[in-house]
Amino acid sequence: LKQVFNKDKTFRPKRKFEPGTQRFELHKRAQASLNSGVDLKAAVQLPNGENLNDWVAVHVVDFFNRINLIYGTICEFCTKKTCPVMSGGPKYEYRWQDDMKYKKPTALPAPQYMNLLMDWIELQINNESVFPTNVGKSRE
Question: Where does Zn(2+) bind (predicted)?
Fold first, then answer.
């Protein structure tokens, strides 16, 4: 398990919601509904009186955290040698473009693609103009 939770290699800390805040309460409600075995459509339905952007933000962060943990369990088996292409089966190849280092869609080994993707998602989640941490703060 040490390799799975090596923070420098695979594990990224969860973005936490401050206890006592509205987002924390939404997070608790989302966790309870997802862990109860209920209908997923009902589990992600916006609760009455809640802000849609806050509800979506809570689910995006939770989804990122779960995907990150899943990826952490398989990344040691997917190396540049064993996974030379980031693909979605034989018909689809994913290429990376970030308009900084990779100005054109570029074929990359799956682990490199995933690391860039997870870094990019983490930047978006931590960007206050995209995901403000204060409820009610306007989004640009």
Answer: 78, 83
φ/ψ of 19, rounded to 5, equals: -55, 140
Is 6 in the same domain as 73?
A: yes
Place of tokens 């849609």: 52
Query: Looking at residues 104-120, what average pLDDT do you find?
Result: 95
Predicted confidence (pLDDT) per residue in 19-66, tens digit? 777 667 777 776 666 565 657 677 778 889 988 888 888 888 888 988
Strand partners, 95: 107
Same domain? 23 vs 73? yes
78 assigned binding-site residue: yes
Query: 140 in a domain, yes or no?
Result: no
Same domain, 55 and 27: yes
Contact present, 89 and 79 (Cβ < 8 Å): no
